[in-house]
């Protein structure tokens, strides 16, 4: 089952610092999820000045319960980076299945 996650960071003074503090662990877990076929795509959401203010992920889990188990240990959740999160079931179109994206920041 595939899910679309759209999350926005907090807007308080410490928000950017929390993101930076949790970013390495977030990327490390993301790499593990990509290798396991659980994360299909992810990107940072940027503001008009190019600052990271949120995230968009396309995830694949056998059930919502298994997605919730990942969410409970996701560093941007435990590190209080994401303030507003919307998770919806979705269906990746056949043209995009197995797609790889070159490069990553």
Automatic annotation (TrEMBL):
Membrane-spanning intervals of the chain? none
Record's Pfam families? Answer: YCII
Do you know which Gene3D superfamilies this protein is assigned to? Dimeric alpha+beta barrel
Q: Which InterPro entries match?
A: Dimeric_a/b-barrel (IPR011008), Sec-metab_biosynth-assoc (IPR051807), YCII (IPR005545)
What does the sequence similarity comment in the record state about its family? Answer: Belongs to the YciI family.
Residue ranges of domain YCII-related in the record: 13-89
Name of the featured protein: YciI family protein
